[in-house]
Write a structure and sequence with these properties.
The chain is mainly beta and 168 residues long. Helix content is 15%, strand content 46%. A hairpin with a 3-residue loop joins strand 9 and strand 10.
Length: 168
């Protein structure tokens, strides 16, 4: 009995999905990032300083599309920064630039990493065919590295790494 019901449904699903599987209209796309900016929150301050809060913003050059639950993670290799960020959003409803509010305990260079996992509600293979399943690029100023990874049919992972300088 179960086979009689499930087999026709499976065939219908596979047939319906295959007709437009390569169409850009149904393609999920991750956001494309252009730059990572640091903005001091101390009034009148123009440089990021130790002990003071500042906001790091990952600026999108192109918005993503057909994405739902998205998880964000900010970290630093030294594990010395205090991070405060929104860990998840529904991207198609909240597609603003990812941000992190940070306090650095001391002056120096910090290697900051952003990792966004974007669950797709459309076809990820269009992106993989056009850009590759694992593609690298740099931020517009040439100082940061961006890695776009297609996680099969279900998600994208975007990792951005950039060194930031904190003044005394």
């Amino acid at each position: 009995m179960i086979k009689k019901i499930l087999l026709p449904l499976l065939c219908l699903f596979l047939t319906a999905c295959s007709e437009d599987s390569d169409s850009a209209e149904y393609a999920s796309k991750p956001p494309v990032f252009a730059e990572l900016t640091c903005t001091p929150l101390t009034p009148g301050e123009t440089e990021v300083r130790a002990g003071q809060r500042f906001v790091v913003t990952l600026v999108q050059k192109q918005k993503g599309r057909l994405l739902n639950t998205t998880k964000y993670e900010w970290s630093d290799k030294q594990q010395m920064l205090q991070h405060k960020y929104v860990p998840s959003v529904i991207y198609d409803n909240q597609s603003q630039n990812p941000t992190d509010t940070i306090v650095a305990p001391s002056a120096g260079t910090y290697n900051l990493t952003f990792k966004g996992t974007y669950n797709a509600s459309g076809n990820t293979q269009w992106w993989a065919q056009k850009y590759g399943a694992n593609s690298l690029s740099t931020l517009s100023d040439g100082t940061g590295r961006v890695n776009y990874l297609v996680g099969g049919l279900f998600y994208f992972t975007v990792t951005v790494e950039k060194a930031i300088e904190v003044k005394p």
